[in-house]
Design a protein that fits this description.
Blueprint (H helix, E strand, L loop, with lengths): L9 H22 L12 H16 L4 E4 L40 E4 L7 E8 L7 H10 L3 H8 L11 E10 L2 E10 L6 E2 L1
Parallel strand pairs: 3-4
Antiparallel strand pairs: 1-2, 2-3, 4-5, 5-6
Helix pairs in contact: 1-2
């Protein structure tokens, strides 16, 4: 049986996660509007850092919110400490100077560090006019847990242990001169993309 890891009901869990994301996005759009101004052309990493800070405030001490986090601290083998997608995913060369975000590091994750049974949310962000690439969507698809994945993780038999219950793609647009986040959600129960 799948247990809720956020809130008191598995049915309400996604609603509560969405509420937290909405509050954090409201704060970002209000307090950090300058970062979202398309004429300034700030790097997406600056935007995701600030969004991560706002998310942490609303998720509280129970959850860790990290940007471009790539560690699997549940592993005892140092060579296995880097989070990896399953081997059927074509590997792309990882380069720390990559400003296009084609590497496997998710923009933002909400999880508990040191364990892999509590991976709640993974977020990819694009600035205005930034369309999701096939790589962005494939990355989110492959990080998205299914019910079977969640059950395997809870029974601790999954070798990858990095599935996330919810995935979110955010693209910032401008509406009437103000930043407006377009959100596309996917969750492990329905496993389909929804504009919300």
């Amino acid at each position: 049986m799948v247990e809720p890891i956020f809130g008191d009901s598995i049915d309400r869990e996604l609603d509560r996660v969405r509420d937290v994301v909405d509050y954090a996005l409201d704060d970002l759009c209000e307090r950090d509007r300058h970062l979202l101004d398309p004429t300034v052309d700030i790097n997406e990493r600056s935007i995701t850092h600030r969004l991560g800070m706002h998310l942490q405030r609303y998720f509280g001490d129970r959850w860790d919110v990290d940007c471009e986090y790539n560690r699997n601290l549940n592993s005892n083998n140092a060579s296995e400490n880097v989070k990896r997608l399953p081997p059927d995913i074509p590997r792309q060369k990882v380069d720390w100077r990559d400003t296009n975000g084609i590497t496997i590091y998710p923009d933002i994750i909400v999880h508990r560090r040191g364990v892999n049974t509590h991976n709640l949310l993974v977020v990819e962000v694009k600035k205005q006019n930034g369309q999701p690439s096939e790589w962005d969507l494939e990355k989110l698809r492959r990080l998205q847990a299914t019910r079977a994945d969640v059950e395997r993780i809870e029974s601790q038999v999954d070798p990858y242990d990095m599935w996330y219950r919810y995935t979110l793609f955010i693209r910032f647009e401008q509406r009437e001169g103000l930043p407006w986040p377009q959100k596309i959600w996917n969750d492990w129960q329905s496993n389909n993309w929804q504009n919300k």
